[in-house]
Amino acid sequence: MTVDVLKANELKKAAPVFGQLSFDDHEQVVFCNDKDTGLKAIIGIHNTVLGPALGGTRMWNYSSEWDAVNDVLRLSRGMTFKSAITGLNLGGGKAVIIGDAKTQKTPELMRRFGEFVHSLSGKYITAEDVGMETADMDTVREVTPYVTGISEDKGGAGNPSPITAYGVYMGMKAAAKFKFGTDNLEGKSVLVQGIGHVGESLVEHLSKEGAKVLISDINQARLEEVSKLYNAQIFTDADVYSADVDIYAPCALGATINDETIDRFKASIIAGAANNQLADDRKHGIVLREKGILYAPDFLINAGGIINVYAELEGYGKKEIMEKTQNIYNTTLEILTSADVNDISTHEAALKIAQQRIADRKKQQ
Ligand SMILES: NC(=O)c1ccc[n+]([C@@H]2O[C@H](COP(=O)([O-])OP(=O)(O)OC[C@H]3O[C@@H](n4cnc5c(N)ncnc54)[C@H](O)[C@@H]3O)[C@@H](O)[C@H]2O)c1
Predict the structure, then answer these.
(1) Among 40, 94, 105, 179, the one annotated catalytic
(2) pLDDT at residue 1 in the model
(3) Measured from the CB, is residue 193 less than 6 Å from ligand 1?
(4) Where are the beta strands (DSSP E) in the chain?
(5) What is the pLDDT of residues 284-301, one digit of tens each?
């Protein structure tokens, strides 16, 4: 561990961007700065072999600029594989805005951000992520057409979060089928960490099916609201990761499966919406497999949102969106089976398929 930290620190000094551990042959990284609106944003374009880089914008109060760079690099890479495995003709990109979405987000700041997106002439297309609402994308739409996730009355496909939640639910059911022999979640205990846009909708599906739902969030008011609405139990223990549940569903931020938490998990399945759940894809994917914890790869099961926004570009409707999202069940089962047959982590099994699709397309170009 100490050696890893030392190595990372040396790399930061010698090659602060291209040498970053999370840098993975990204095509372009754009730093956007505007003094008047206070905008400090980074757009990461990982790969555009399959199409324009599409991915949401996250507004977050990062503890350092370094964390923001790291996040956008990891998130944009994840988008490349998400679109590839879902069969969409999209590349991977993502943007982060440094700041508190509750106090620092203004229409002027969002429009200025939209102008930066516009300057990339469609190579990057944005959408919402943590800290963003459909209304913010409507504001961005005032200055650029390179935005999705806009409201339905403005011709968009609307808020992608309920579709994302439906896809996660499908992926979770497939994982249950694989692990428990049945996809019926009635009576299964599921801890949903983060009950924001996606988490709440997932809680709704789960409680309708009769699962025993536990919820955890840093926002106490939301906990009480969601608990009342869906009869979900608020998880009060200090340690979320050692909760004695059947399924852990991370729906807050990424990297919750890391060196500190991985030995504490008691859940049999990990299936949630958060992007980049594994702090170290390779290492933690393998450890989960060794521990017998079935991990449904995040970029595979949380693709509902991108399917929804892709519909805006391709012009298909709700029925097709739901069918494609429902299909996450089948793809998840295939990948879990393939990981088992090939004795590799589920993350690696999913990654291989995504990478192969990109390599095949590259050969044709
Ligand atoms: N919205 C989508 O369509 C979509 C699509 C794919 C992936 N995702 C990913 O799913 C996750 C959730 O997205 P969202 O749109 O619901 O975001 P959101 O901002 O609406 O909700 C996030 C929730 O997590 C809570 N939270 C933050 N830190 C926490 C912590 N340490 N412990 C517990 N709760 C915490 C917040 O209070 C909030 O309620 C994100 O990682 C996002 O990148 C979202």
Answers:
(1) 94
(2) 47
(3) yes
(4) 28-34, 39-47, 53-54, 57-60, 91-98, 124-125, 189-193, 212-216, 233-234, 247-250, 269-270, 294-295
(5) 999 999 999 999 999 999
d(CA 199, CA 42): 26
- Compute the residue count for the chain: 365
Q: Is 197 in the pocket of ligand 1 (CB under 6 A)?
A: yes
Q: Is 250 in the pocket of ligand 1 (CB under 6 A)?
A: no
Catalytic (active site) residue 318:
no
Q: What is the pLDDT of residue 288?
A: 98
- Residue spans of the chain under pLDDT 70: 1-9, 11-14, 16-17, 21
- Work out which ligand 1 atom sits closest to the CA atom of 216: 33
Q: Is 87 in the pocket of ligand 1 (CB under 6 A)?
A: no
* Domain ranges in the chain with CATH number 3.40.50.720: 161-303+329-355
Backbone angles phi, psi at 267, to 5 degrees: -65, 150
Question: Where in the chain do CATH 3.40.50.10860 domains reside?
Answer: 26-74+92-154
pLDDT recorded at residue 18: 75
The class (CATH top level) of 26-74+92-154 is: alpha beta
Q: Domain 161-303+329-355 is classified in which CATH homologous superfamily?
A: NAD(P)-binding Rossmann-like Domain (3.40.50.720)
pLDDT at residue 347, rounded to an integer: 97
